[in-house]
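note to self — DONT lose this again. spent like an hour looking for the file last time. sequence + predicted structure for the chain T wanted, 271 res
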Amino acid sequence: MRIIVTGGNSGVGKETATALAAAGHRVLIAARDFAKSERVAAEMPGDVEVAHLDLADLTSVRKFADSVDNVDVLVNNAGVLGLPLTRTADGFETHMGTNYLGHFALTCLLGDRISDRVVSVTSMNHMFSRLHLDDLNWHTRPYSKWAAYGQSKLAIMLFTDELARKGVRAIVVDPGGADTNIARYSTGFLGWSSGLSWLRNFPQSAETAAASSIMGVTSDLPPGTYLAPVFKQFGKPRVTKRLRKAADPETANRLWKLSAELTECDWPART
């Protein structure tokens, strides 16, 4: 299969891309840092290509999508965490813009070329978050980086559910806690602690955490499946029941319409 992995040059994305390439799949790493992607790809086994993609810039998303002829599986993996209030090139709050809206646009733009499935990465933080459709991008509310991150991951849960209702084999996966550099742009304790060697591989390595994504790509799963570790932060991935707020069809439909309006992208009509 030909598989696109966003953010496939580091962390869980890198381990996902490595394992899939080693299994004989053709992998395309799509990430913002092209030079780093080239270095990482050179060390991977198998057929691995790289391309530039900045999910925080819809112009970049469109340019990348235009370069793709076909793809079997799209893995929406890239993400940011713990950022102060900043905005993307299109004015979106950065967690929502990068983690969700950029992936929403990418998925829709590639919709007529995805032949097998879409796998999107969420986080257990969605369980503690609330979606504010009236202020998705934090223009009127007091800002919280943790709530912003959690809201973006809850949006991914609802997006996957709505995509499944459109007849797409859409799978959402939670890798659990992992030793990655997702906090590399954060400040304060989170940014400081992310560089501590004694916290490496806590509570699990990125390689172990990639199991959910790999299972989401390679297993015969029905649309709308949610995979998460047995113990949420670590453990073997398994099919997991969603919280009601993460599977509400009315909210998912409203979010989809708002996302299509904000990104000017929508799922292609099937003839």
